[in-house]
Amino acid sequence: MPSYASPPIEPSLITFDPRAGGMSPSGPVLTRRMSDLDGLFADGDAWRAAVRDGDPVVYDVASSPVPEAEGELPQSITTIRPGTVGGEFHMTKGHQHPNPQGEIYLGLAGTGGLLLFDGDRPRWIDMYPGAIGYIPPGWAHRSVNTGDEPYRFLAVYPGNAGHDYGWVLDHGMGYRVRRAPDGAPPLLVPFTASSPRTSPSNQE
After folding, report:
1. pTM reported for the whole predicted model
2. Which of 14, 32, 93, 161 has the most crowded CB, counting CB atoms within 10 A?
3. DSSP string, 84-107
4. pLDDT band for position 197 (cuts 50, 70, 90)
């Protein structure tokens, strides 16, 4: 066998429930509340009001035990709760991979979208159960719940890709995704950050 800086884990079976989320065996679980999304929503007053009004959970990320290490393929299931802030749909923080690598998202439950941005061009991919969204190397990405139920997806990514959350605060994501009237498809409103952030908020 080839040699590795860190020996790979043993072959294993990992199961998940697409309707309930979670993985077995389970790894770390990350919970993001509204207060963790500082600087991401256009309507700062609406965001602050949501934080004061109970600081609700916006999304969870349940990971498998596969480590984020070179040669490994970690997996995670993200569940985004439905809702809007000032008309803008609930979303993940979004990130770019410092070590440019591809990634795939598989829709499991609910409806949402995958927003991608390479610094010049934004792209939007509708996501739903059975849809696979491919993220090429070099594209920042964020997931958005555009429905009225929890939106859930499985992510599989190279373990050495890394996560740069500050890039999104500095550059924006090309579009803001807003609720349209009368149940029409989401509105994609062009947007890029006008200036670098002044208060870093780039934790996972």
Report:
1. 0.89
2. 93
3. EETTEEPB---BB-SS---EEEEE
4. very low
